[in-house]
Design brief:
The chain has helices at about 5-15, 130, 195-205, 230-235, 255-260; strands at about 30-35, 35-40, 45-55, 55-65, 75-80, 85-90, 110-115, 120-125, 135-145, 150-155, 165, 215-220, 235-240, 245-255, 270-280, 285, 295-300, 305-310, 325-330, 335, 355-360, 365-370, 375-380, 390, 400-405, 405-410, 425-435, 435-445. The protein is mainly beta. The model is unreliable at about 1-25 and about 170-215 (pLDDT under 50).
Length: about 450
Amino acid sequence: MKLNHGSVAILAFGFTVAAWGQQSAPPLTLYDQGGVSVTATETEDTLELAVSEPDPISVTVEVDRNQNGQIDRYVDQAYGVQHDGSLCAIYLIDERSTTACFGFASSAHLKDLTDDQGRRRYTLVVPKKELSFGQPSARLVLVIWDSAQKSRSFYPPEGFQQAIFVPYAIRQAGAGKVQPIRDDPGAQPEQKPEPHPDAVEKRVATKPEPPSAQAIKQYMPLLAGAPFWVRQMRIGVVRTDAVSKYHFVVNFTVPDAGVRSPQFPAYPFNLVTVSGSRVLGVQRVAVPNETLPSIIGDWKPGDAVRLEFDLPKEYADPSQGWGLTFCVGSTSRCLVSSNLLLDNADAPEPYVAGPHIRVENRSGVYFKNVVVNGKQYGDIKAGASTNYQTMEHAYKYASVTLTTDTGPMAMHPIDYIGERQLREGNYTYVLTIQDGRLIIECMVD
């Protein structure tokens, strides 16, 4: 089945809703053009996307997780395969920028990866829970990148506004397996005629609405003052407002404490506990134990772990002193996270003496390996900017080296005679290219 977009595509997939969730459901063709093909197959808990791409074409799958038809910063995600054959899972920031690879702790993985005679084939396996917030469907956009032509195209061209609609069955809480829907739970399975298109359209129209973007908050917990292992955890939190409670999805990476300090030898990482409390006077009040989960496993440093739980709102207000943390390790010792209720973006930036400088790429090309005054700023996409770094001495212009697709570029000032040093504060070095030359402009933020 080859999809066209719009209402016809939704109806075409609607015919398969009753059949999906069964092992015998055939793969669905999402894309088949120019030697590139993408098909979808459902398992009980995952969606498997089989991709076939000829060199020099590569496919990235973007996911509208809250299904609102637009890109939501640090909520919607994308999956692609790097040149070395490893999976790259990233958050979308806007239409032009993303996080770096491994921007979140994904449970997706690759299988059946082959690269033979100029064609790469692989299967991307993504848990359904990771594709959407409990909705019985996914909405996908395929990004086709041609490295030879330096061109990028989207399917569908409208992006998330007309994303590919892929329905699937979801495992209900407490259920052992997904069962086909029957009018009589005690009745034997029977062959039913294919539904009339009007009935399918009604079923699609009455499917549960996804949570609004206002109900979802995605953030990194507070890092200021946290021990070194918290930064290794790379914690990401997605909090969904569910009336009287919040639904939390917490992704993190198991840290390697022993690498940084001999005081922390290699942990046996087989238990994650979640706890919450606040202090009233000299008394500590804890969140009831039955409210928060503990999970048992067998992890090593670098492994991705996903926690998912509900927290009543009465225990979730940090302004009232509530704290929420997880601890990864064992029953005897563990490494505790920072407070999951505090958004790092809301915390004031720590004061550091000297000018704080970030770099913005205001050209139309991709800058790689950007180095300014000896400081590494990494790769910067067109239109994107970096985090601030502190420089002991800086001026309105600086020494810059970088690489573009056409080769290296550099700017090296002869001297700073007559120039005053930048005072303490926040600045942006704006880089552009004019007539083949690299241009720098200093802006006060």
